[in-house]
Amino acid sequence: MSASQVRTNGQKALSATIAVEHKLATIGCTIVEAMRGIDNKNTRSVLQNLKFEQRSYRFSRRSSRPL
Q1: CA 37 to CA 44: how far, in whole Å?
Q2: Residues 35, 58: contact at Cβ < 8 Å?
Q3: Angle value at C-alpha 9, between 16 and 28, nearest 5 degrees
Q4: How many whole angstroms separate alpha carbon 17 and alpha carbon 2?
Q5: How does DSSP assign 1-67, residue by residue?
Q6: Which of 15, 36, 52, 56 could join 47 via S-S bond, C-beta 3.0 to 4.6 A?
Q7: What are the pLDDT digits (tens) for 1-56?
Q8: What's the whole-number mean pLDDT along residues 57-62?
């Protein structure tokens, strides 16, 4: 993927994010939460650029049986 494609995809993502946040605000949503996979290293900086704040760490595991 070229740098211009990355920029274009980033601009599309930003436009989509703004549109979704606006729609959520019109129905009364006041907090938007985003999660990322641990393997996706670039997502952290993208979310920070979109003014998301890291508030916690999320832990999970697969269970072979109920606890």
Answers
A1: 10
A2: yes
A3: 15
A4: 22
A5: --HHHHHHHHHHHHHHHHHHHHHHHHTT---------TT-SHHHHHHHHTT------------SS--
A6: 52
A7: 665 665 666 677 778 878 888 898 999 998 888 877 777 777 778 788 888 888 88
A8: 80
